[in-house]
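Good morning C.,

I know you're traveling, so I'll keep this short. The sequence:
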Amino acid sequence: MAEKARKILYGICGIGTGHTNRQLPLVEHFVAAGDRVMIFAYGESLAFYAARFAGHADVAVVPVSVPFYVGNKDGLDFEATARLEKNRGVDHTAINSAALARAQQFLGRPDLVVSDYEPVCAQYAYACASPLVTIDQQSKYLVGDFPEDLGGQGYKDEVARLKLFFPRAHKRIACSFFQVAPKARPEVEEGVLLGPAILKPSIVDLVRRPTAFPSVLVYISSQQDFVQDLAEVADLCAEQSQADFHLFLPRTAEVAAFERANVRAYRQGDPRFSEVLSTCSAIVSTAGHSLLSEAMHLGIPVYAIALPVYEQAMNARIIDSGGFGLSRPAITAADLSQFLQKLPDFTRAIAADREVLLRGQGRDSVIALLEEILVGG
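The tokens, ready to paste straight into the viewer:
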């Protein structure tokens, strides 16, 4: 137990579950240390952390509201952002002012503010002159040498969002499952620390025991509409009699409709996910950062289908070019069959790589850095 409770404000993006899972080991470290922690959250992260710390006297979970800023190849489109239906009818100012007032009452001036792509906590850090540390995967675009166009997608909007949300930071940390070549002129003066992904303890502790008969985990993100009808995905899997498939679908899906002779269906969040992950031979998935980071850590080949955002296009490209699996715009019978046939080659490539993949668990080095800042480093 700390002699004097330190005061920490966390902001956690609520789009998908990757942000939630990445920050959980860090939040739990400070809670276990006896620190006073407030979490600004919305969406998935709000629901998760409100339940996780319900009734905890030294942890407060507070809703914030963050409009979605529409991007294009030139940066941000503020006119389209203003027209976006989901941004309308929400009093962002009232919600966020209430959150800032709660922070003032619960924390006063924080000793540290940490943001995973959540900008309201950053505003409080600036107002209080508290050190702000950003942790995300997008910050690699501030300093990395990336192609400007990938399948019609660009990363200028990612850079623009980061500059809008976090114009200055005490430290910027980018988590990545792959190495990044530096660009000649970084976009920010303070630079970015690149490190391996922060993995959940359940992933670090997972014991791999693949089944003798190939088993494939299929994960369809709920972030955006998938490029194919989900029934078509189930049918394509059913055609591959040389493997069993475990299909994890958005929570709104009626899973029974997607069951086939060799296809089991589940809703996302099903506790059986870890069991399937431990026994599977391969993953078919949208190209989100968190699951691909976990797959590479565990040595599992991936058939990656990128959603139409640059981040996923880049993640999928790394998988394909590194020989760690395949990247395709959709699932086809021929590509799925090829993927299954080449699983031994993909598995060996992941194990042998020493140049592309960024190995290790990023949690401990990030905690060490945050602790250093808290003692005045």
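Safe travels,
E.
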